[in-house]
Design a protein that fits this description.
This protein is of the alpha+beta class and 181 residues long. The chain contains five helices and seven strands. Strands 1, 2, 3, 4, 5, 6 and 7 form a seven-stranded mixed β-sheet that branches. Strand 3 and strand 4 form a beta hairpin. The chain is globular. It starts with a strand and ends in an 11-residue tail after the last helix. The relative contact order is 0.20. Mean pLDDT is 88; it is low at 175-181.
Length: 181
């Protein structure tokens, strides 16, 4: 079963600033009803109040978080080769499409219908197909990149600290240039 998740706009922006994780944690047990190879779609609210499609995680694993984990006990992992984050700027408002899915999103502000455990909703196959078609022309989010793990590992195994530093410096990883405290 494919799922739809509402990613709060402030959390979306913060997650991009600190580096995307290609995983999602949630308190809703529905999160573990998604099958391996199925999709967890997410949409977010842009700063101007409109909604945009933010990501498709194609699920590669499901795990449990430690007891008392802040974001809930359920975690899903996206396949790093098949999952994608979309650039949200320039996208048309996706709220009409989301409301057409029959998810009981009746609140005047769409995001209010996706709060707490209701943040994750099951999608019908037809709605998943509509999201696939909608997402096809969307540009990818340039900051949602990971360092090439194979190259990094090879450099680490070779003990070449200078090349590791160069890779981290030169490879666009998507991390914002902000101080971490």
């Amino acid at each position: 079963m494919d799922l739809l998740y509402f990613w709060r706009g402030d959390n979306y922006r913060r997650d991009l600033d600190y580096g995307v994780g290609f995983h999602l944690n949630q308190a809703n047990p529905l999160l573990h009803d998604v099958g391996i190879g199925e999709s967890l779609w997410s949409f977010t609210r842009k700063a101007d109040g409109r909604y945009a499609l933010a990501a498709e995680l194609v699920i590669s694993a499901k795990t449990m978080n430690p007891h008392g984990f802040r974001y809930g006990p359920y975690r899903v992992w996206g396949d790093l080769r098949r999952s994608r984050y979309f650039g949200i700027e320039g996208q048309p408002d996706i709220s009409t499409l989301v409301r057409s899915f029959g998810l009981k999103a009746k609140a005047g502000v769409l995001g209010r219908s996706f709060q707490g455990k209701a943040a994750v909703r099951a999608l019908h196959v037809a709605d998943h197909m509509r999201l696939l078609a909608y997402a096809e022309p969307l540009p990818l989010e340039p900051r949602a990149r990971l360092l090439p793990e194979e190259r990094l590992e090879a450099l680490l195994l070779a003990g070449d600290e200078n090349e590791v530093a160069r890779l981290v410096r030169d490879e666009p990883s998507g991390l914002a240039a902000i101080p971490f405290t």
